[in-house]
Design goal:
The complex is a heterodimer of chains A (424) and B (169).
Chain A: H1 14-17, E1 22-24, H2 26-29, H3 31-40, E2 47-51, E3 60-66, E4 69-75, E5 81-85, E6 100-102, E7 106-107, E8 114-115, E9 121-123, E10 143-149, E11 152-156, H4 164-168, H5 171-178, E12 186-197, H6 201-207, H7 214-217, H8 219-222, H9 227-232, E13 241-246, E14 249-253, H10 274-282, H11 287-298, E15 302-306, E16 310-313, E17 316-324, E18 327-338, H12 342-355, H13 363-376, E19 384-386, E20 395-396, E21 401-404, H14 409-423
Chain B: H1 10-31, H2 35-40, E1 42-51, E2 64-68, H3 70-82, E3 93-107, E4 110-123, E5 126-140, E6 146-155
Parallel strand pairs in B: 1-6
Antiparallel strand pairs in B: 1-2, 3-4, 4-5, 5-6
The chains are: A alpha+beta (424), B alpha+beta (169).
């Protein structure tokens, strides 16, 4: 039985749906609200579309979405990145059907209209029938504004938006820290897990900044790792914190020792990486490199949520793709070291497989919880989602406000940004 | 041009039957929670692999859904029955049929066998189907018995979005 959409019986104005310590259930269940989000949020802010390593060469492309609109993310011959609406300017067909690949042009399969990598319309078959009434210069594939930071490529449909760097604000330094899991090599995204769950996208948005669920939902994962790792992951009640970074972004620091992977490199190598370290030494890596690589494989000690659709989450990128009000697609993109030692990258792949994806020991339990949230959200007519955890202990910081590691500070931050965009 | 007629000799047919019996026994164990028996079918260095890209051959250096050595196989079995994982509690019921069996190679005591697996799972009132092309590598031991050395499960929709799969494919 699928979770059904049920009409909201009490229509509240949007301004009332998000309060300082709670949000209305209709944010998960109201299909009309979802359509407004696709416009007011996904057409009006910076949306993550790719990591630079996914389109490494001239002609490399991937397809993705901005909201529900299909786009092509492509690197042209001059190595510049374009994000183009995947829609022929003739009669609307998609011009690119593959998830990723390499191309010199994009040719529409319907009538053969041909576009260059920057989207400009190169040629149309049998142009004589158009006479003078077709100006190719006016019919390129529609282009979005594109900016990049730390290898993360964002696009927007809002022409007059602030620069990406301003939008990211204090999140930038956290992105820089996160990318240290290249271990001295460039970061590469060689693949990803993709799955869907029957629930609203904001349920997952919350979860990335939710430490509170970890010990219970991920008990089976915790019981499948060594004692030292299990203790390291026992962070609820610990010295971590969640910080609101502005513009809906937040960082949840679970393991403060692993904020900066280059800090105190001479600390003992964790038990689970002792064998890997030995192998790396045997392969001729010097001590500093071994330690750096081991730190890279282990990942960062924090989740950085970048509103609205991407997170730098400990050791991978999590991408949110809304499908409908009660269905969401998630990508877990694995991060490896470009040109790094095979043993290190294998260890990273195995760690990712252990927790993430539809057969991991972690993701399916998260997904089950979210499914149950969407199912429970069908009950009641005017009930609320509580977001008050950690409010009393919140303190001002240089970048915003912070609560304890299990506080719902990050969720409050995201929903305030949601409200701002929905009311604009 | 003369076409070669398809005519397996009695040895080839016996081999096919033996491989099929093994595969059916393995499938039956998994549908009936006979997990210790299933674990015992494996060579210690054996690998249970569920790739994302069906064309990939270098599974060790690419991202898979699963790439289980014997530790991970044991952990997967333990998690399934532990009651600690909400996605496997209640456990899904599975009924699978394995068919279209073909011995595609035999070298150095290792049999490579391909088959088609059609699995249905039922959990919390939802019936789902997972179709896969499966390649088994079976090694013949000294007593003539077979053990599982490698099982690669290529789901027909492996490049699409999947739902959670907590049981053993």
């Amino acid at each position: 039985m699928n979770a059904s959409v049920h009409p909201v019986h009490f229509r509240r104005p949007i301004a009332d749906l998000v309060q300082s310590d709670r949000v209305h259930t209709s944010l998960y269940t109201d299909a009309a609200l979802f359509e407004e989000e696709m416009d007011k949020i996904f057409r009006n802010t910076w949306i993550w579309v790719a990591h630079a390593s996914e389109i490494p060469d001239a002609g490399s492309y991937k397809t993705h979405w901005v909201g529900k609109e299909p786009v092509i993310v492509v690197r042209d011959r001059k190595k510049q990145v374009h994000v183009l609406l995947n829609r022929c300017r003739h009669r609307g067909a998609t011009v690119c059907e593959h998830k990723k690949g390499k191309a010199n042009t994009f040719v529409c399969p319907y009538h053969g209209w041909s576009y260059a990598l920057d989207g400009s319309l190169r040629g149309v078959p049998h142009p004589e029938s158009y006479g003078e009434c077709l100006d190719k210069g006016e019919l390129p594939l529609v282009s979005l504004r594109v900016e990049e930071y730390a290898g993360m490529i964002f696009a927007t449909l809002k022409d007059d938006i602030e620069p990406l760097a301003d939008f990211l604000g204090p999140a930038k330094k956290w992105m820089d820290l996160f990318m240290k899991q290249g271990g001295g090599y460039a970061i590469k995204v060689p693949g990803e897990h993709r799955f869907r769950f029957p629930g609203n996208w904001k349920i997952q948005l919350e979860n990335t900044t939710d430490a509170y669920h970890f010990p219970l939902v991920h008990k089976s994962f915790l019981h499948s790792v060594d004692k030292q790792t299990e203790e390291m992951l026992d962070f609820v009640g610990g010295s971590g914190y969640v910080e609101d970074l502005g513009n809906g972004h937040s960082v949840m620091v679970m393991i403060p020792d692993l904020i900066d992977l280059e800090d105190e490199l001479d600390k003992p190598i964790p038990d689970r990486f002792v064998e890997l370290a030995q192998q790396l030494r045997a392969e001729g890596h010097d001590d500093a490199s071994v330690r750096r690589i081991v730190r890279a494989v282990g990942g960062s000690g924090f989740n950085l949520n970048l509103f609205p659709n991407v997170a730098c989450s400990m050791a991978f990128f999590r991408v949110l793709q809304p499908i409908s009000v009660n269905e969401t697609e998630i990508h877990h993109a694995v991060i490896t070291m470009e040109g790094g030692p095979a043993a290190g990258n294998q260890a990273r792949l195995r760690l990712h497989e252990h927790f993430q994806g539809p057969m991991g020991f972690g993701t399916p339990d998260d997904s089950e919880a979210w499914e149950r949230v969407q199912a429970g959200a069908q009950a009641g007519r005017d009930l609320w989602i509580l977001l008050n955890r950690g409010l009393p202990g919140e303190k001002k910081t240089a970048d915003g406000v912070a609560g304890d590691v299990s506080a719902e500070t990050g969720m409050r931050a995201a929903y305030q940004q949601w409200k701002k965009l929905m009311l604009a | 041009m003369t076409a070669t007629a398809f005519s397996p000799d009695s040895g080839a047919l016996a081999l096919l039957q033996q491989a099929t019996a093994f595969i059916w026994a393995e499938a039956d164990m998994l549908d009936h929670n006979e997990f210790q028996a299933w674990l015992d079918l494996w060579e210690p260095d054996g690998l249970y692999i569920v790739p994302i890209d069906p064309k990939e051959t270098d599974h060790e250096n690419t991202l898979n859904y699963a790439y289980d050595d014997h530790h991970m196989r044991e952990k997967r079995v333990r998690r399934l029955g532990s009651g600690e994982s909400i996605s496997t509690t209640p456990q899904a019921r599975t009924v699978r049929s394995v068919s279209r069996v073909r011995v595609v190679g035999e070298a150095d005591g290792v049999l490579t066998v391909r088959a088609a697996q059609d699995l249905k799972e039922f959990r919390k009132d939802v019936l789902r189907q997972h179709i896969a092309d499966v390649t088994y590598e079976l090694r013949r031991g000294e007593g003539g018995g077979l053990r599982l050395r490698r099982k690669v499960i290529r789901l027909i929709n492996s490049t699409d979005t999947l739902t959670s799969i907590g049981y053993i494919l």
